[in-house]
From TrEMBL, chains A, B, C, D:
SUPFAM superfamilies noted in UniProt: Class I glutamine amidotransferase-like
Descriptive protein name: Trehalose utilization
Coiled coil: none
The species this protein was found in: Aquimixticola soesokkakensis
Segments forming domain ThuA-like: 11-227
InterPro entries for this protein: Class_I_gatase-like, ThuA-like, Trehalose_catabolism_ThuA_prok
A Pfam family assignment: ThuA
Length: 268, 268, 268, 268
């Protein structure tokens, strides 16, 4: 049966550290309204996505519990001020992912608190700031995150990130970068944590106009669509409920000694 | 060419919370020297493994930097006192894994600090303490962790853990449990974080004699052998070195604006 | 920006072996128009999906190159006559998957030619036909294939399939079954081959009314939506093009001896 | 407990197509005794490995059932004559892998019959024969296959293979190559099929002295050690046994209609 689909747009929230845009003339010139605004503006040209922004300097970094509850996909760019993000907000973001919020980590967000917490790994790499050529190859044919791209695309000036990249094996490797100076890097990686889809996307050093690039914008908007989980958020993503014997799905008799009484909370 | 192999034994360290063994008569009767000692004793019957123990109540929980450096595979059992493990020691254990130490998490250690930190996930599940039958099926044929087992083995009395288990997709699923009361659980899962191999193994509720079971002992000693990484430990598992332009493997010219000066530390 | 979405429906094709429906009174009574028709009818009640059917007895088994080109997701049920499927058609189906066609294999299709060819594995299991209870647990929280389900659902009468299931590690394990007779089985598994998404779904023995079950129908329609890849089909999914030196993306000089002349086909 | 280990050496078998060594003067000069002999000779310098060779031109291509049963790890190099390998021998090799034989596919063996059959994918790629520089980066820190290597190694003259490489997502990505002409390639990938471990390793074009390179030799011998599964071979790797109701592990009553009689073979 065919029927017209009418869906609410995906609610994206672009979080920016917003530090170098304030302090560095080069960055400010490229991104006069901040990198987050550039990214959000590009998302807002896409049908089916509405994007807002939040910054480190906002109360609660713009990431109140209420706002996260209304966010379908959170995008994160940070670099100089990872340590200024409060542990409480970082934990809140992580739990929102577990409950089903999609999340995209951009470039230097490989060292952002929520990324390290979600990966359980060092997330380290090698790097060089030389404005060299980067060529991103698609390694997962027709992956939705690569929709509309050819087999590769290029960025004439980018910072180099090199392997080994200290992350867990991904669900899928979507992009691998070639760098002019001789390195390679897994530049597009997907993960799932709880009910939340996660995409790491490498490019985006702040002294280059990367987020004005049409291919980069396309990958990011594809990523938002991919990461969106339409299911209702999991209400209590850390719950570990006790199942009393008398409600077991198959009839069983309690046997042997116990530590806990019925319906008691487990230890954490 | 054939030659006799002579290898140093794998140095295992069995960490036990050692709380219920002190407080609960049932547990003390089953494990008069503690669960950790029972596990270590079984490991010490195996050629090629030497096992010691450490407990929560030791200084630094028995997990000084020096001792972790001399540990090839750490085994962890905890339940009632996860919160009493210091954050500093938990982080030290996690970094030892990243540097190449193998690690086995047993039963209720699914909520141990180092496990949650390494998984980046809620690690939650459902549970019932009814002494019901558990049957563990091998799902990865001839996996080294299942060496010497048939297609399944049984534990007549165990606590139930039920899906959904809030962990990332594993590298491999080695065991899946059937429970008498109607649930299933992924009871043997492998992961890699940094250079370290991780194995989660479900059975081991403290009021049952699980760690006296020959099949359970076999899986644990197989797990130690599997998790052991013979490579030298990574010295600085969180390093993210700058690669100066002039040492690039392919000759490149620096182009465009920069944030960092040569050899500078990156932001974290 | 918000805009109404109008999409073409997903074109599903349900392939049935259609043997037992003709020969066995029990099966015919449950599925008077064939299992394939029951499955297709259920899909046709869903917005956004249009389903047709094809059977073994059709010319080219109903799977001409032209028809596969117009199929977004192919569903496959077979059991008694796997060997009657021509190798040519099986290969054609496999290449359609590589080019981006989604595919769902149902129940005894674990031994269908295209499934074995796509898995590269024996795809074997243990089995028992006793009409026992099966309970399918969701293991990947909020996975789109499990949309609308609770943590589990039950089928009161099903054939048992038991581990070890001889398939490669999946991208994701979505369901694990509990069986009354004591076995477990990974009942929902996802894979990607080339540009094609693949979902294996266990239930569906022909002597039980499984495909009339609302939860089973829901999983299958979720599976169709999940497996659909909206990208244009890859034109030549087995191509291995030579890249001549003079069109290399970075200027290089040819060095050393060669086997091939420019633009020559590689060996296969 | 410590005890001296004494183990039988791993029995490796290096299979070579042995065509270009006979027909092409350049190849013959580099590998006067064939590429297979060069690889086997290097393996025979390693403690704990004994290597033999077999070639396409041998009866049954040197791969009789008896010989495969005595092979722990099979290495495969082929290029010009993939089509000359008999389907029967290819299937025999595949089933040996399912039963637990380790297997390493080298370079152009990405199009060998057993590799395509084990992957279930097109296994295609782009290529260029220009003697360009290849740099292989280790992406899985301290992986046993990379033992003894630094973060990368180089081959000054190699054929280029480029992404997208048409293979399933691997268990682990161990190496990624950088090519001088601008491409990247996942050059070291691990898989498991049935009880057998599989490693694909990219380098080895026949007109270059790649298999004389010390790093390449080290990776190959590491790969043999990694791929070796010490468990006894699975006797019947394609068996799908019926479990009669009366031998069910939990007592159940047969219910509902059946297709099969007790102990009957299932359909294939």
């Amino acid at each position: 049966m065919t029927a017209p689909l009418s869906k609410s747009p995906i609610r994206a929230l672009v979080w920016g550290e917003n530090v170098h845009e304030q302090k560095n003339a080069t960055v400010r010139e490229i991104y006069p309204n901040g990198m987050h605004s550039c990214i959000a503006d590009a998302l807002n040209t896409q049908d089916g996505i509405v994007a807002e922004t939040a910054v480190l300097q906002d109360p609660e970094h713009g990431l109140s519990a209420d706002r996260l509850a209304k966010t379908d996909v959170l995008l994160w760019w940070g670099h100089a001020a990872h340590g200024d993000v409060s542990d409480e907000v970082a934990q809140r973001v992580v739990e929102a992912v577990w409950s089903g919020m999609g999340m995209i980590f951009l470039h230097s967000a490989h060292f952002a608190k929520p990324f390290k917490m979600l990966m359980g790994a060092a997330c380290n790499l090698t790097w060089r700031e030389a404005g060299e050529r980067e060529r991103l190859w698609v390694t997962s044919k027709n992956h939705p995150i690569a929709a509309g791209l050819g087999d590769y695309f290029e960025l004439e000036n980018e910072e180099m990130y090199g392997e080994p990249f200290g992350v867990p094996e991904p669900l899928e490797t979507v992009f691998i970068s070639w760098f002019q100076g001789g390195e390679v890097f897994r530049s597009g990686l997907t993960y799932k944590r709880g009910a939340g889809n996660i995409f790491y996307f490498r490019p985006g050093h702040e002294t280059y106009p990367t987020y004005h690039d049409a291919n980069v914008q396309r990958v990011i908007s594809n990523g938002v669509t991919w990461a969106f989980n339409p299911a209702a958020r999991v209400a209590n993503p850390t719950d570990a409920p006790n199942i009393p014997v008398e409600t077991a799905l198959e009839p069983i008799q309690e046997r042997g000694p116990r530590l806990h009484s019925d319906g008691e909370e487990g230890f954490r």
